[in-house]
Write a structure and sequence with these properties.
heterodimer, A: five-stranded antiparallel β-sheet, B: mainly beta, seven-stranded mixed β-sheet, four-stranded antiparallel β-sheet, 52% strand
Amino acid sequence: QKEVEQNSGPLSVPEGAIASLNCTYSDRGSQSFFWYRQYSGKSPELIMSIYSNGDQEDGRFTAQLNKASQYVSLLIRDSQPSDSATYLCAVSLYGGSQGNLIFGKGTKLSVKP
Amino acid sequence: KAGVTQTPRYLIKTRGQQVTLSCSPISGHRSVSWYQQTPGQGLQFLFEYFSETQRNKGNFPGRFSGRQFSNSRSEMNVSTLELGDSALYLCASSLNLGPRPDTQYFGPGTRLTVL
């Protein structure tokens, strides 16, 4: 059974702090890794994607991948109340463009003003 | 560019009935994937269609089926509805241009309630 594990939270951080979200996956053959944000009552939206070991930065967001440890993380710098949402980690077994994502159950983030 | 659209947005059915959900992908996108989201199980992959063919399938019973039309629009059907089928059904589309990893864009979902 291929699994993606996330701490369900809630993770509470003060405004302006760094929020750190973590994810582990079970299948060593996993090729592509994604972080989605989902606001309550809305559909998931892609924040970051990462395919090779190391860090990838986009504005306030940094995704980190360690394939040896089967670990993906998302850092949100200067957290804002608008970042309060559920963050979903997703993994694909395919390096190519096949739409079969395995999702974690998500970490609920709350940013307090 | 218009996003992924799904119809209907809300649906109430009773046990034993069947239901058909529709998804129109972003213009030019050739792959459509379907997911079921429930509070207990989270987001689970149902199936993916590409060029009118089912390319991947998740671990769901045969009551769940789908198809894709030549214009890339997709439908999914659930027959003999059970209470446990109550969920948010999400459709996602992607370009699918080749071997490089692709980005899936989700539609707003169809909220199905089975009574």
